[in-house]
Automatic annotation (TrEMBL):
Transmembrane segments: none annotated. It comes from Streptomyces venezuelae. Belongs to the enoyl-CoA hydratase/isomerase family. One of its GO terms (molecular function) is catalytic activity. SUPFAM superfamilies: ClpP/crotonase. InterPro entries: ClpP/crotonase-like_dom_sf, Enoyl-CoA_hydra/iso, Enoyl-CoA_hydra_C, Enoyl-CoA_Hydratase/Isomerase. This is Enoyl-CoA hydratase family protein.
Length: 244
Protein backbone atom coordinates (compact mmCIF):
# COMPACT_ATOMS: atom_id res chain seq x y z
CA UNK A 1 0.00 0.00 0.00
CA UNK A 2 1.61 3.26 -1.15
CA UNK A 3 -0.74 5.52 0.81
CA UNK A 4 -3.52 5.42 3.37
CA UNK A 5 -6.72 7.46 3.56
CA UNK A 6 -8.47 8.15 6.86
CA UNK A 7 -12.14 8.65 7.57
CA UNK A 8 -13.06 12.35 7.81
CA UNK A 9 -12.39 13.86 11.25
CA UNK A 10 -14.52 16.97 11.66
CA UNK A 11 -14.36 17.46 7.91
CA UNK A 12 -10.61 16.84 7.48
CA UNK A 13 -9.60 13.69 5.61
CA UNK A 14 -5.96 12.70 5.99
CA UNK A 15 -4.06 11.15 3.10
CA UNK A 16 -0.73 9.69 4.23
CA UNK A 17 2.16 8.96 1.87
CA UNK A 18 3.15 5.59 3.30
CA UNK A 19 6.24 4.21 1.58
CA UNK A 20 8.92 5.19 4.11
CA UNK A 21 11.30 2.50 2.87
CA UNK A 22 11.36 4.34 -0.48
CA UNK A 23 11.36 7.80 1.16
CA UNK A 24 7.87 8.28 -0.33
CA UNK A 25 9.45 8.69 -3.77
CA UNK A 26 7.12 9.52 -6.63
CA UNK A 27 6.71 6.16 -8.32
CA UNK A 28 4.10 5.40 -10.94
CA UNK A 29 2.22 3.48 -8.23
CA UNK A 30 2.20 6.37 -5.76
CA UNK A 31 1.18 8.97 -8.35
CA UNK A 32 -1.68 6.77 -9.54
CA UNK A 33 -2.89 5.98 -6.02
CA UNK A 34 -2.80 9.63 -4.97
CA UNK A 35 -4.69 10.74 -8.09
CA UNK A 36 -7.38 8.13 -7.43
CA UNK A 37 -7.72 9.09 -3.76
CA UNK A 38 -7.98 12.80 -4.53
CA UNK A 39 -10.59 12.14 -7.21
CA UNK A 40 -12.74 10.36 -4.64
CA UNK A 41 -12.26 13.02 -1.97
CA UNK A 42 -13.05 15.86 -4.34
CA UNK A 43 -16.56 14.42 -4.65
CA UNK A 44 -16.94 13.45 -0.97
CA UNK A 45 -19.43 15.73 0.81
CA UNK A 46 -18.03 14.71 4.22
CA UNK A 47 -14.59 16.07 3.34
CA UNK A 48 -14.13 19.82 3.87
CA UNK A 49 -10.37 19.71 3.22
CA UNK A 50 -7.61 17.18 2.58
CA UNK A 51 -4.56 16.92 4.83
CA UNK A 52 -1.57 15.44 2.99
CA UNK A 53 1.09 14.03 5.31
CA UNK A 54 3.71 11.27 5.45
CA UNK A 55 5.29 8.45 7.39
CA UNK A 56 9.03 8.20 7.88
CA UNK A 57 11.77 10.83 7.68
CA UNK A 58 10.84 12.09 4.21
CA UNK A 59 7.68 13.81 3.04
CA UNK A 60 8.72 13.03 -0.54
CA UNK A 61 12.19 12.54 -1.97
CA UNK A 62 11.22 13.33 -5.57
CA UNK A 63 10.89 11.00 -8.52
CA UNK A 64 11.54 7.32 -7.93
CA UNK A 65 14.51 6.82 -10.22
CA UNK A 66 13.91 3.06 -10.34
CA UNK A 67 10.20 3.27 -11.19
CA UNK A 68 9.50 6.85 -12.30
CA UNK A 69 6.00 8.03 -13.12
CA UNK A 70 5.02 9.07 -16.61
CA UNK A 71 5.75 12.83 -16.77
CA UNK A 72 2.29 13.55 -18.13
CA UNK A 73 0.70 11.62 -15.25
CA UNK A 74 2.71 13.63 -12.72
CA UNK A 75 1.70 16.92 -14.34
CA UNK A 76 -1.92 15.75 -14.30
CA UNK A 77 -1.62 15.01 -10.57
CA UNK A 78 -0.23 18.46 -9.81
CA UNK A 79 -3.03 20.08 -11.79
CA UNK A 80 -5.58 17.89 -10.03
CA UNK A 81 -4.40 19.13 -6.62
CA UNK A 82 -4.53 22.76 -7.76
CA UNK A 83 -7.99 22.31 -9.30
CA UNK A 84 -9.49 20.17 -6.53
CA UNK A 85 -12.60 21.92 -5.14
CA UNK A 86 -11.40 21.18 -1.59
CA UNK A 87 -8.35 22.87 -0.04
CA UNK A 88 -5.33 20.58 0.23
CA UNK A 89 -3.10 21.20 3.25
CA UNK A 90 0.37 19.68 3.54
CA UNK A 91 1.86 18.59 6.86
CA UNK A 92 5.62 18.27 6.50
CA UNK A 93 8.06 17.11 9.14
CA UNK A 94 10.78 15.54 7.04
CA UNK A 95 12.86 15.92 3.91
CA UNK A 96 11.37 17.26 0.67
CA UNK A 97 13.38 17.08 -2.53
CA UNK A 98 12.95 17.82 -6.24
CA UNK A 99 9.55 16.58 -7.47
CA UNK A 100 8.36 16.40 -3.88
CA UNK A 101 8.55 20.18 -3.84
CA UNK A 102 6.15 20.25 -6.77
CA UNK A 103 3.72 18.13 -4.78
CA UNK A 104 4.09 20.51 -1.84
CA UNK A 105 3.78 23.60 -4.04
CA UNK A 106 0.51 22.38 -5.53
CA UNK A 107 -1.08 22.33 -2.07
CA UNK A 108 -3.02 25.37 -0.93
CA UNK A 109 -1.53 25.60 2.55
CA UNK A 110 1.38 23.91 4.30
CA UNK A 111 2.79 23.60 7.82
CA UNK A 112 6.38 22.48 8.35
CA UNK A 113 7.97 21.11 11.52
CA UNK A 114 11.58 21.24 12.74
CA UNK A 115 12.66 18.01 11.03
CA UNK A 116 11.82 19.48 7.63
CA UNK A 117 14.43 20.28 5.01
CA UNK A 118 14.05 21.26 1.38
CA UNK A 119 16.22 21.22 -1.75
CA UNK A 120 15.75 21.57 -5.50
CA UNK A 121 18.30 18.86 -6.31
CA UNK A 122 17.51 18.54 -10.01
CA UNK A 123 20.60 20.37 -11.26
CA UNK A 124 22.78 18.01 -9.21
CA UNK A 125 21.58 14.99 -11.21
CA UNK A 126 21.54 16.65 -14.62
CA UNK A 127 17.92 17.78 -15.02
CA UNK A 128 15.88 20.91 -14.25
CA UNK A 129 12.83 21.71 -12.07
CA UNK A 130 10.64 21.89 -15.17
CA UNK A 131 7.04 20.79 -14.56
CA UNK A 132 7.15 21.54 -10.83
CA UNK A 133 7.66 25.20 -11.73
CA UNK A 134 4.00 25.40 -12.75
CA UNK A 135 2.68 25.50 -9.15
CA UNK A 136 5.90 26.74 -7.53
CA UNK A 137 7.07 29.86 -9.35
CA UNK A 138 3.85 31.83 -8.71
CA UNK A 139 4.32 31.43 -4.96
CA UNK A 140 8.09 31.61 -4.46
CA UNK A 141 10.09 34.76 -3.82
CA UNK A 142 11.86 35.32 -7.20
CA UNK A 143 15.30 35.83 -5.71
CA UNK A 144 14.99 32.73 -3.59
CA UNK A 145 13.77 30.71 -6.57
CA UNK A 146 16.85 31.75 -8.54
CA UNK A 147 19.17 30.86 -5.70
CA UNK A 148 17.75 27.48 -4.77
CA UNK A 149 16.89 26.33 -8.30
CA UNK A 150 20.42 27.06 -9.51
CA UNK A 151 22.46 25.89 -6.51
CA UNK A 152 20.43 22.99 -5.18
CA UNK A 153 21.22 24.16 -1.64
CA UNK A 154 19.33 22.69 1.26
CA UNK A 155 17.22 25.04 3.41
CA UNK A 156 15.10 24.67 6.53
CA UNK A 157 11.48 25.21 7.48
CA UNK A 158 11.93 28.83 8.58
CA UNK A 159 13.47 29.70 5.23
CA UNK A 160 10.71 27.78 3.43
CA UNK A 161 8.16 29.98 5.19
CA UNK A 162 10.11 33.16 4.43
CA UNK A 163 10.23 32.47 0.69
CA UNK A 164 6.58 31.40 0.39
CA UNK A 165 7.05 27.66 -0.03
CA UNK A 166 5.13 26.83 3.16
CA UNK A 167 2.48 28.81 5.01
CA UNK A 168 3.85 28.41 8.51
CA UNK A 169 6.86 26.81 10.22
CA UNK A 170 6.83 25.84 13.88
CA UNK A 171 8.45 23.74 16.57
CA UNK A 172 5.53 21.32 16.23
CA UNK A 173 3.95 20.68 12.83
CA UNK A 174 0.67 19.55 14.34
CA UNK A 175 0.39 22.64 16.55
CA UNK A 176 1.15 24.85 13.55
CA UNK A 177 -1.72 23.19 11.68
CA UNK A 178 -4.37 23.92 14.29
CA UNK A 179 -5.34 27.47 13.23
CA UNK A 180 -5.28 26.49 9.55
CA UNK A 181 -7.59 23.51 10.01
CA UNK A 182 -9.86 25.36 12.44
CA UNK A 183 -10.28 28.13 9.89
CA UNK A 184 -11.20 25.66 7.16
CA UNK A 185 -13.69 23.91 9.44
CA UNK A 186 -15.38 27.25 10.09
CA UNK A 187 -15.68 28.08 6.38
CA UNK A 188 -18.72 27.36 4.21
CA UNK A 189 -17.93 24.57 1.71
CA UNK A 190 -19.24 26.45 -1.33
CA UNK A 191 -17.39 29.60 -0.34
CA UNK A 192 -14.17 27.60 0.10
CA UNK A 193 -14.49 26.14 -3.39
CA UNK A 194 -15.12 29.52 -5.01
CA UNK A 195 -12.34 31.20 -3.05
CA UNK A 196 -9.90 28.49 -4.10
CA UNK A 197 -10.89 29.14 -7.72
CA UNK A 198 -9.95 32.80 -7.29
CA UNK A 199 -6.57 31.88 -5.85
CA UNK A 200 -5.66 29.23 -8.41
CA UNK A 201 -7.00 30.70 -11.67
CA UNK A 202 -3.65 32.01 -12.93
CA UNK A 203 -1.84 28.82 -11.93
CA UNK A 204 -4.35 26.73 -13.86
CA UNK A 205 -3.91 29.03 -16.86
CA UNK A 206 -0.17 28.34 -16.68
CA UNK A 207 -0.83 24.61 -16.64
CA UNK A 208 -3.03 24.93 -19.71
CA UNK A 209 -0.51 27.10 -21.56
CA UNK A 210 2.81 25.51 -20.56
CA UNK A 211 2.25 21.88 -19.51
CA UNK A 212 3.03 20.35 -22.89
CA UNK A 213 6.26 22.31 -23.37
CA UNK A 214 7.50 21.66 -19.85
CA UNK A 215 6.60 17.98 -20.01
CA UNK A 216 8.59 17.70 -23.25
CA UNK A 217 11.52 19.55 -21.65
CA UNK A 218 11.45 17.21 -18.66
CA UNK A 219 11.39 14.13 -20.89
CA UNK A 220 14.27 15.46 -22.98
CA UNK A 221 16.40 16.24 -19.96
CA UNK A 222 15.72 12.92 -18.25
CA UNK A 223 16.82 11.19 -21.46
CA UNK A 224 20.06 13.16 -21.73
CA UNK A 225 23.59 11.90 -21.18
CA UNK A 226 24.02 14.25 -18.22
CA UNK A 227 20.91 12.85 -16.55
CA UNK A 228 21.96 9.25 -17.14
CA UNK A 229 25.38 9.99 -15.65
CA UNK A 230 23.90 11.93 -12.76
CA UNK A 231 21.22 9.41 -11.85
CA UNK A 232 23.62 6.49 -12.14
CA UNK A 233 26.09 8.24 -9.86
CA UNK A 234 23.31 8.98 -7.38
CA UNK A 235 22.09 5.38 -7.32
CA UNK A 236 25.65 4.09 -6.98
CA UNK A 237 26.42 6.65 -4.25
CA UNK A 238 29.40 8.13 -6.03
CA UNK A 239 30.34 11.64 -7.16
CA UNK A 240 28.83 13.02 -10.35
CA UNK A 241 31.35 13.42 -13.17
CA UNK A 242 30.98 17.19 -13.50
CA UNK A 243 31.64 18.11 -9.86
CA UNK A 244 34.74 20.32 -9.65
Amino acid sequence: MSLTVSSPARGITTVTLDMPERRNALSAELVGALAEALGDLGADSATRAVLLTHTGPAFCSGADLKAPPDPAAFVALLRQIVALPKPVVARVDGHVRAGGLGLLGACDLAAAGPASSFAFTEVHIGVAPAVISLPLLPRLDPGAASRYYLTGERFDAAEAARIGLVTVAGEDADAALVPLLDGLRAAAPGALAETKKLLTARVLDAFDDQSDALTALSARLFGSTEARDGMTAFLERRERPWVL
